[in-house]
Amino acid sequence: MLDFRRPAQRIAAIIIVTFCMTVIPAQAEDPYLVRDIWTGPENSYLTQLYAVDDLVFFRATNGTDGLELYRSNGSASGTIQIEDLRPGSTGSNPSTFCDLPGHLLFTASDGVDSGLWRSDGTPESITLIKGDFIISGGRMERMGNHVYFPASVVGASGGDTELWRSDGTLVGTERVKDINPGNVASDPEYMVAVGSTLYFAAYDTTHGTELWSSDGTEIGTVVFDINDGGPSSSPSELTRIGDRLFLMANNGVDGAELWVVDAGSASMIDICSGSCSGGAGGITEVGDLAYFRSLGDGTTGPELWRSNGTQAGTWMVKDINPWGDSMNNVNSEIIAASELIFFSADNGINGFELWRSDGTEAGTTMAYNFHTTGNGYPSLFTRIGDVLLFSAGNLDYGYELWGLNLCLFCDGFEEGDTLAWTIVMP
User: In the chain, what are the domains?
Assistant: First the structure.
């Protein structure tokens, strides 16, 4: 019996799905695999999807080589393992992807060196930038000609996890600042660049875990203390919305709420009045608006909300599940595409399935029910060109990588238009 509880481990192959404005004959909807990475019914354990221009990079296994670096342009011939960096079943386990002009940066281990690597997508281009190097936190962020990340040097004195950056070369890979001096890590995380300023959460013994900003220099890396003094404001969900920063933080008085940093000034949007926490998870940019999940005033479960960065301009889009929680922090990712958002939600009837919204209550509807007797769990949303890629599961295929042709929504999607799911041969 298929196990649909762990979608990240149930992905086996790449599929492109087309959408049409009219019903396609049944025979045209028969599925065709673009590529079966691990031949047969086994899962290829495809994760870490990262789009760069018209390619998507990811890690997967063919059942022989372990988890290695792959790329795809959506066709069978264009879906390849770039290199077997660590021969054998262990695999190099590439992760933490980020792009610089002409290169993908990632972490991996070839069995000798574990550290930061780069590739232009060809086998001969894979190069070790810095070995004996541990990048933690699962995320790198590009600002200008550098990527920023939390890292430590193996065995080095004072080698705790601090803020580092790299331009893709050994000499250009350096620590920005020892935020928490000594051998206690500051553990920078949730990094996001807004213009020429990098924002992130970090810990020091004076301020606790607070919001920090950096211009890429040691002297220009400073604390932005939301909860003044020692108690932590525990900032998270940092997201760039235009030229502003949206995040969730707790000032010690009003609970965990939505905050906006604009031109160096921070303001709070009090979704749940008083000391209760409205929260703001999965913050996503759609034009100059932020979409996110929130508990609201406590009378609903986590639901879809939107905000323009003001108290008056923040409200719940729709109570999708009147009987419980429609969204959570495990199965409810949000992505913007063609002036719409796509996300995973549970209406209390169909389980976690693919939903779409134009920001109105009437325009927030389930887009597709993948699993008619359980949860489809759409997740791992990413985009290349006009195709939205994501993982979803059903009884026929388990969890696979699906695609949505976003051109369907270029001139709006009207009631009565039909979604015809067809897996297209390359």
Answer: 50-365 (2.130.10.120)
